[in-house]
Design goal:
The chain contains 2 helices and 11 strands. By secondary structure, the protein is of the alpha+beta class. This is Bgt-51737.
């Protein structure tokens, strides 16, 4: 009986956690300075401005209500360590089939980061953080 409970929990975790692997991330990932304009450049060539990321966060927040318990996103995010405290969430930047880029944000609607995902040779989704770039000096 205990095996089926653990197995069921593992299956549920896999369904609700689309980003299953991490690529070479060590240490704390910096969080954007809210007083500077920024952009994230992802390894797949996509880039996202602060405005695009913030707009997606506001859109994602619509689904973070008790009356929408079956919606897949946003999901609590704890795969990487960011230089900020509190619970983090992630949401895909573009709807459709993966691999995806995601915005990472906190419960105060602050953009904390962006991550990009690809599939490895076995078909598992692997994630890595996008690079933070400031646009004004």
């Amino acid at each position: 009986m205990k095996f089926s409970t653990i197995s069921g929990a593992s299956t549920l975790f896999c369904i609700l956690t689309p980003v299953t692997g991490l690529r070479g991330v060590h240490g704390m990932i910096p969080v954007p300075n809210p007083n500077r304009e920024f952009r994230y450049n992802c390894p797949n060539g996509a880039s996202y401005t602060e405005a695009e990321l913030s707009q997606k966060v506001l859109f994602a927040r619509q689904f973070m209500h008790p009356d929408k318990p079956d919606y897949q996103y946003p999901i609590v995010f704890d795969a990487f360590r960011y230089g900020i405290t509190g619970e983090l969430w992630y949401y895909p930047m573009i709807d459709g089939s993966g691999p995806y880029d995601y915005v990472v944000f906190n419960t105060e609607n602050r953009v904390v980061g962006a991550i990009s995902s690809t599939y490895d040779a076995e078909g598992r989704e692997m994630a890595e953080p996008c690079d933070l770039t400031y646009l004004n000096r």
